[in-house]
Design brief:
Homodimer. By secondary structure, the chain is an alpha/beta fold. Helices cover 41% and strands 12% of the residues. It starts with a helix and ends in a 42-residue tail after the last helix. The structure holds iron/sulfur cluster.
Length: 389
């Protein structure tokens, strides 16, 4: 049986493009037809990315203490969320944290700092970190995410070897002022333009679940298409206690898959990354979502804990995916290394920040209600506890 979504995929594969009406129709598909959407969007994914998954690793260089008021953010001005708060990591700690992610299977390190935007001294730090990282790890891809850029800063990052710059538009222009008032949508677009002009690969995405309409989600995706973002992180709101979005639950696993599929139809050849909120919102559909998306973060997020890195890698392998840039043999060996590390943790007490000695990922022991609340990150960058990588 050929579905309307197959016909849409045929049209796109023949050089056509999804319309806004197509995109809204994807979002409004009944859950009973979800697999028709996945099958059709999966054809586009396989056409452009085969069975590869790009694995990225976040290093939060500076956490909390932000003067901006993004309502969704646990690090924002006024947020009471008890997240880790620290100023800039040293170069050595950055190298250590990034190295953990790279040894864990990531090929791209995303260096992020809270704040409105970097000072020129902050750029000095990131330039130094990038040089050290590139020297220590041949072939590593570096993405910087430092906020709004001023003139000349993107050029300095590019000259230092930074490959990409992330600055999310987060939501539709028509919804932007409802979620933040200390900067404008135009400010965000301006920074993406500066990054592009300097030759950095533009990475920009969105957060779903902020009270936006279907049409606004589609508006945001078409804006990202227009901006020609090379990678598009799709976040699902993690409603941290102590933020204005506390207790806001608008998403279901099927809804999240449809949002990712919509992104695939609109931007068929772009990296669609399942970003924050993956475990909490997709739940048992995480692997299904990877049949339309082609990129994830390994391990933890900026201020919250993700599922165990081993669970991420096993999910990829169980579903027939391989890590982009790694052959199957190396991938198998990587999983065995992770299993050995996990076994050693069990033998010595699990080391999970839950402290219950369960040996598993935070959330796997029943000590957290991971699916209902973000689990605040208490390991990796800014702590003395080993990273989840
Ligand atoms: S999203 Fe960035 S700019 Fe906004 S409050 Fe959070 S750290 Fe600050």
């Amino acid at each position: 049986m050929t579905t309307a979504f197959d016909q849409l995929a045929d049209r796109i594969l023949s050089g056509g493009a999804a319309t806004a009406e197509d995109a809204v129709a994807v979002l409004r598909t009944p859950d009973t037809e979800l697999m028709n959407v996945v099958a059709a969007a999966g054809r586009l994914r396989r056409e452009h990315f085969g069975n590869t998954v790009k694995v990225n690793y976040l290093v939060n260089l500076k956490s909390g203490l932000c003067p901006e008021n993004c309502n969704y953010c646990s690090q924002a001005l006024g947020s009471q969320a008890p997240v880790l708060k620290y100023s800039w990591l040293s170069k050595d700690e950055t190298l250590e944290q990034a190295g953990a992610g790279l040894r864990g299977g990531a090929t791209r390190v995303c260096m992020v700092s809270s704040g409105r935007g970097p000072s020129d001294r902050d750029i000095d730090k990131v330039v130094e970190m990038t040089s050290a990282l590139k020297d220590a790890h041949e072939g590593v891809e570096v993405c910087a995410c430092l906020g709004l850029l001023k003139g000349g800063q993107a050029e300095r990052l590019k000259a230092a070897g930074v490959d990409a710059y992330n600055h999310n538009i987060n939501t539709a222009e028509s919804h932007h002022d409802n979620i933040v008032q200390t900067h404008t949508y135009e400010d965000r677009v301006d920074t993406i333009g500066k990054a592009k002009d300097a030759g950095l690969s533009p990475c920009s995405g969105l957060i779903a679940g902020l009270g936006e309409t279907d049409e606004q989600l589609v508006e945001a995706l078409f804006a990202l298409k227009e901006l020609d973002a090379d990678s598009i992180p799709v976040n699902f709101l993690m409603p941290f206690d102590g933020t204005p979005y506390e207790n806001t639950w608008e998403l279901s696993p099927a809804r999240c898959v449809k949002i990712l599929a919509m992104a695939r139809f609109v931007c068929p050849d772009k990296e669609i990354r399942i970003a924050g909120g993956r475990e909490m919102h997709l739940r048992s559909l995480q692997a299904t979502a990877l049949h339309v998306a082609n990129s994830i973060f390994l391990g933890d997020y900026l201020t919250s804990e993700g599922q165990d890195a081993l669970a991420d890698l096993e999910m990829l392998r169980d579903n027939g995916f391989i890590i982009l840039g790694m052959d199957e043999t190396a991938f198998g060996e990587l999983i065995e290394e992770h299993r050995a590390k996990a076994a050693a943790r069990v033998a010595g007490g699990c080391g999970s920040s839950c402290g219950d000695g369960c040996g598993g990922a935070a959330g796997a022991c029943g000590g957290h209600d991971e699916q209902e609340r973000p689990v605040i990150r208490r390991r990796g960058a800014g702590t003395d506890v080993a990273a989840n990588a």
